[in-house]
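User: Working on a comparison across species. This one is Sporulation histidine kinase inhibitor Sda from Cohnella herbarum. Can you predict its structure so I can line it up against the others?
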Amino acid sequence: MVAARRLSDKASLLRPLKDEHLLEVYREAKKMNLSNEFIELLEEALSIRQLSHYREA
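Assistant: Here's the predicted structure for Sporulation histidine kinase inhibitor Sda from Cohnella herbarum:
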């Protein structure tokens, strides 16, 4: 629970990004095979914005 809360807190730092930019960063991070921690952070931010269904689009 505490780890999930910290991830959510970190994901909130991505709030200034527009939805389209966040999706672009996520897709590029996946393509570049960046760290799982960073990708999880992006996924949490997408989830908070209810954009999870656009991840693979």
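For your comparison, note: The chain has a mean pLDDT of 88.

User: Helpful, thanks.
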